[in-house]
UniProtKB/TrEMBL annotation:
PANTHER family per UniProt: TRANSCRIPTIONAL REGULATORY PROTEIN NARL-RELATED (PTHR43214:SF24), TWO-COMPONENT RESPONSE REGULATOR (PTHR43214)
CDD domains per the UniProt record, alphabetical: LuxR_C_like, REC_NarL-like
Alphabetical keyword list: DNA-binding, Phosphoprotein, Transcription, Transcription regulation
Protein's UniProt name: Response regulator
Native source organism of the sequence: Salininema proteolyticum
Residues carrying 4-aspartylphosphate: 55
Length: 221
């Protein structure tokens, strides 16, 4: 079945251009177009899209507020944030609430198509190591946090795995570091996501920093 896409952007020409581009792909279909955050939330409920292209800055309810509302409802679409400006604090907040990545509006058409396919497959658009660098930069000038009781839900081995996820390591690298099988690592990661109510590895990295498990500038972090 074709991936169902909702485009939320307050500029009519942007919506029309993206819609024409994506609808031309055999495996993609645009099911809705919203001009602001509230309309995006309403259409997400109505059309049940697989992927939402969500502009960050829209009148009334902005893209971050709309993304949060959609993701908290549990319908589980993959949200790809669109922006005309370079990465800043919006990236951190978008990843924190469960967005699958960011894309500049002026990216080449093939990048947009590829990004939609990547997030539709359940993968984060940003690689773990890149996510780590972005989040570490966000925390660099902020106070070091103390350990959070939230991590008390995890076993000591799950703590080890979460720390390595926060360092940007993939499952294979974690398996080699801990001398366990990759399947064992996958099981631990799945358990961490379940216990901490996380959608993906990007959120796991954020939790590790927010809880004080790792800190910006720490050579082991």
């Amino acid at each position: 079945m074709a991936t169902r896409i909702l485009i939320a952007d307050d500029q009519v020409m942007v919506r029309a251009g993206f819609s024409a581009l994506l609808d031309a792909q055999e495996d993609l279909t645009v099911v809705g177009g919203a001009s602001d955050g509230r309309e995006a939330v309403s259409q997400a409920r109505e059309f049940k899209p697989d992927v939402i292209l969500m502009d960050v800055r829209m009148p009334g309810m902005d893209g971050l507020q709309a993304a949060r509302a959609v993701l908290e409802e549990g319908s589980s679409p993959h949200v790809l944030m669109l922006t005309t400006f370079d990465i800043d604090d919006y990236v951190y907040e978008a990843l924190r609430i469960g967005a699958s990545g960011f894309l500049l509006k002026d990216a080449p058409p093939e990048d947009l198509i590829s990004a939609v396919r990547v997030v539709a497959s359940g993968e984060a658009l940003l690689a773990p190591a890149i996510t780590k660098r972005l989040i570490e930069e966000f925390f660099r000038d902020r106070p070091v946090l103390s350990a959070s009781s939230r991590l008390d839900r995890l076993t000591p081995r799950e703590i080890d795995v979460l720390r390595l996820v926060a360092r940007g390591q993939a499952n294979g690298e974690i398996a080699a570091t801990l001398y366990v099988s990759e399947q064992t690592v996958k099981s631990h990661v799945s358990s961490i996501f379940s216990k901490l109510s996380l959608r993906d590895r990007a959120q796991a990295v954020i939790v590790a920093y927010e809880s004080g498990l790792v800190t910006a500038g720490d050579p082991k972090g």
